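Page 37, continued from 36.
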């Protein structure tokens, strides 16, 4: 198994776990096509962060815009 295959396996496992966590009764997960965000539902408590970044299909300018958007959110990025 190559290093890239190992990294993809770990990333896929982490995304599965985070999606599962986002399905909890008090949480929700959204996907804007470039990244996913997990957060607590309204009037609930929980963590909030960005994960599953998919910037490879964007132009350099689009990627810079999305990166700026993520940074300005002040949320941790998984």
């Amino acid at each position: 198994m190559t290093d890239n295959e190992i990294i993809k396996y770990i990333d896929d496992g982490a995304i599965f776990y985070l999606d599962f966590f986002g399905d909890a009764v008090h949480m929700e997960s959204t996907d804007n096509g470039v990244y996913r965000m997990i957060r607590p539902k309204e009037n609930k408590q929980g963590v909030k962060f960005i994960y599953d970044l998919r910037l490879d299909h964007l132009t350099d300018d689009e990627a810079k815009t999305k990166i700026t958007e993520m940074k300005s959110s002040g949320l941790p990025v998984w």
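The chain has one domain: 3-73. Flag for discussion at group meeting. DSSP finds two helices and three strands in the chain.
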